[in-house]
Specification:
Largest sheet: 6 strands, mixed
Helix content: 10-25%
Mean pLDDT: 91
Number of strands: 6
Distance between the termini: 57 Å
Oligomer: single chain
Number of helices: 4
Length: 187
């Protein structure tokens, strides 16, 4: 999927290093170690998740899972780079990149202590739109499929990146007033 709306006569993004990557696998690291109950406990405590199924061994042992299981959000910390890099491929000279969010699909298997996940990453595609703040702006997406050590899919993430020409955004100054300090307190 690649779609470009032309900005006739205006600035253009150089997508020559992006176009050929559409649909292609993207590399990236893999975590080697299996996760532990301590990893899960630290994650849920940092997320302020009170559900004892994720951290209390006695409670979890009596559950339908028979022990501690990770919350679905734990998938993100079982991946190098939190899954964003399949949407950030190719060099676009003079561009800036901002993270545009993500969507998740979960397939059912729960992560338990001792599980390992591997990831397959693919650049899905992009769309270029003319925006008020920066002119030609690329919205690109990439997919990460998370699979457990048994080859069973656990989750899929689609991340989005937003790339634009930094000089064009600065020239337009669309957000310039947002950076100005407001009036101080009255005295």
């Amino acid at each position: 999927m690649s779609e470009v709306s032309k900005n006739a006569g205006g600035p253009q993004l150089d997508l020559s290093d992006v176009d050929w990557r559409v649909g292609q696998l993207v590399g990236g690291g893999q975590l080697w170690e299996a996760c532990s109950a301590t990893d899960m406990r630290r994650w849920v405590h940092a997320m302020d998740n009170p559900n004892p199924i994720h951290w209390n061994q006695e409670f979890a042992r009596e559950s339908r899972f028979g022990g501690i299981v990770a919350p679905q959000s734990f998938v993100v910390c079982m991946d190098y780079g939190h899954g964003v890099h399949p949407a950030c491929v190719g060099r676009i000279p003079g561009s800036h990149l901002i993270f545009g969010g993500e969507e998740w699909w979960f397939y059912g298997p729960r992560i338990k202590p001792g599980d390992r996940l591997t990831q397959e990453r693919r650049f899905h595609g992009y769309k270029v739109t003319d925006t008020k703040f920066a002119g030609p702006t690329m919205f690109s997406s990439g997919d990460t499929l998370h699979t457990n050590q048994h080859g069973v899919p656990v989750a899929k993430e689609r991340s989005t990146s937003i790339r634009y020409l930094a000089a064009e955004a600065e020239k337009r100054g669309f957000f310039k007033n947002d950076l100005q300090p407001g009036p101080g307190p009255e005295r």
